[in-house]
Automatic annotation (TrEMBL):
Keywords assigned: Membrane, Transmembrane, Transmembrane helix
Organism in which the protein naturally occurs: Listeria seeligeri
Pfam families per UniProt: DUF1304
The protein's name in its UniProt record: Membrane protein
Transmembrane segments: 56-74, 81-98
Length: 122
């Protein structure tokens, strides 16, 4: 179960690095428009780009927290750190699913829940 927990948590971390990069540096692209389900014209708005960059920073913090739990927290705190940040991802996915797009539940929520369960079972 330890290997599975590591792999699932790593996948969630990589997903949030990808989202961070997309939101912070490539928000005005066709890929971002398709990924986030918005018109490219909206993404051309400088204020919207700023909002996306801010959101990307938060996704980066989630990824950094998961990296901390996976690689730097040490045996004593690693599980607790992973549980905290995976819980944050689950809560964010629930909120995003309720307020933005239900697809967020599947794309971000399900992997985070699976990782969280695996970490809790270790």
């Amino acid at each position: 179960m330890t290997i599975l927990a590591f792999i699932l948590t790593f996948v969630v971390m990589i997903e949030h690095i990808y989202i961070m990069i997309l939101e912070m540096f490539f928000s005005n692209t066709n890929l971002a428009a398709k990924t986030f389900g918005v018109e490219k014209e909206l993404l051309a708005n400088r204020k919207v780009q700023t909002l996306f960059a801010n959101q990307g920073l938060y996704n980066g913090f989630l990824a950094a927290g998961l990296a901390w739990g996976l690689f730097f927290a040490g045996d004593t705190f690693a599980g607790s750190v992973q549980i905290f940040f995976l819980s944050c991802v689950v809560i964010a996915a629930l909120f995003g699913g309720a307020t933005s797009s239900r697809g967020i539940l599947a794309k971000q929520g399900v992997p985070a829940v699976l990782a969280l369960v695996a970490v809790l079972l270790v």
